[in-house]
Amino acid sequence: MLTLSRRRILQLTSASLALGAIGGGRASAVQAGEPTTLRIMSRTLEVDGKPARVFGLAQRDGTPGLAAENGERFRVELINAIDAETLIHWHGLTPPSEQDGVPVLSQPPLPPGESYGYDFVHDRAGTFWMHSHVGLQEQQLMAAPLIVRDPSETQLDEQEVVVLLHDFTFRDPEEIFHQLRTGMAMATAGNAGHGQGEQGSGMAMTEAGDEEMAQHGGMQMPDSGNGGGSVAGGHGEMIHFNDVDYDAYLANDRTLNDPQVVRVEPGARVRLRVINAAAATNFLLDLGAIEGELIAVDGDPVSPIRGQTFDLAIAQRADIRLALPSGEGAYPILAQREDDLARTGIVLATRNAQVHRVPDRAKHKARPLNLALERRLTAVSPLAERPTDRTIPLDLTGSHAGYQWGLNEKAFDPNDPLFVAAGERVEVVLRNKTVMPHPIHLHGHHFQVVAVDQDRFSGAVRDTVLVPPRQSVTIAFDADNPGHWALHCHQLYHMAAGMMTSIKYEGYERPAG
Fold first, then answer.
1. Domain harbouring 401, CATH code
2. Per-residue pLDDT tens for 359-394?
């Protein structure tokens, strides 16, 4: 007769709550036999007592997202149950190019009522996620966790807690984008007490725009910062961190006014899988009184780094291992918007602990994200040492004047790709010429961070890297997955305004159909 310890029962229950916070239930694994059905749907979400219509990605039983074991075939039937075209990108997975979920480059959009079948092998465990790559649907919460577990870790005595972060607005994202394109001020996505005047996270600006100001003396963001508002560079240039203010910031679809409470045992070991699924918000993770070990970034293991705060840019993920104190207690796990007071989070709490309300505004602004942590990260399995065959310089360019963003001074054109050849070691030098940070994501590959500015080192293996204003980051990858792949800023409004390109393998043609 199979018996479960109290700790194991608690682990299973809490994992179910954490991953099933949106739709209830536990994420069932993608099976090697029959495909798992995943529905793109519309749902009603209550945010601080006010209902909103948003999107969702759920299995037939309402479980949000997917979970799988590494080495299994990824077999999913994706059904579009909304009244608009859409398409889902498996962020962090490396499928065949034609199953990557990007309109124009890999697949046509999925019409309402239709379905696509996905079937490929993914050979990397980790914390991944999925989201729409059509229009601004991602801002309306069309995103969900995608967890690929390592079978060798199933016997670890630790509780898994998945945290999906969002920035939320009651407004139509198209209205926000229109405001950004036509006005000089930061777009305000809501009126729930998070306006730019109160938060002070806007930007001093003149009619000259970013680029002209930059010509009169720029500023390189240091690797350490202590918060504050927009930062003035030489001769009036302003470093700017947030384009959009939001009605709320969510962790597993809830604000700190009614946070998810995950029950844990005293002295338990916990593995946090934190996913920044926000459209336009970088977060600083704050573990409070607990010190944790960062053990993986973007799904890839790193040499553990201990700390209480960790940078998490848009689209990045962080796996953090915690060892909780032996007594009763409640432990908020918070994510605070960079250069701002607003925050969200969950609470880990033992069964008998009192859970006190945590304000959704901190006493002090979070510092801007920087590259200090990036410089310290070391991949457990780095790329093999070999010469670089091709170097691609890629300037991150643009201005708030007209809200024009691009790469190498050009907006996205699928017919003007960057070319690589199969088998090459490729380095891309990402040089941020703008006054905003840009999280850059490469589809279909995992890259290694090999330089910050002029400093070469062997860094983390990732799929998304933050490039702060006036700095450069060099990434290296092996061209081992032929196709036509997106490379873009993951700040949704920057991408929509043109900060996207593609990498195409020489001789590749997308299969018909």
1. 2.60.40.420
2. 999 999 999 999 999 999 999 999 999 999 999 999
Confidence (pLDDT) at 236: 53
Q: Where are the beta strands (DSSP E) in 471-510?
A: 472-478, 484-489, 500-505
> How far is CA 504 from each of CA 21, 134, 381, 480, 508, rounded to the nearest angstrom?
39, 20, 26, 12, 7
Structure tokens at 8: 């194991």
Closest CA to 257 of 192, 328, 191: 192
> Residue 266 half-sphere exposure, CB side, CA atoms within 13 Å?
7
Whether 122 is in a domain gets the answer: no
User: Per the domain annotation, does 448 fall within a domain?
Assistant: yes
312-351 confidence digits (pLDDT tens): 999 999 999 999 999 999 999 999 999 999 999 999 999 9
Please report where in the chains the tokens 């969510």 appear, as a residue. 250
* CA–CA dist 489, 86 (Å, integer): 20
pTM: 0.88
Parent domain of 423: 377-505
d(CA 393, CA 386): 19
**432 lies in a domain?**
yes
Sort strands 283-286 and 330-337 into parallel, antiparallel or unpaired. Answer: antiparallel
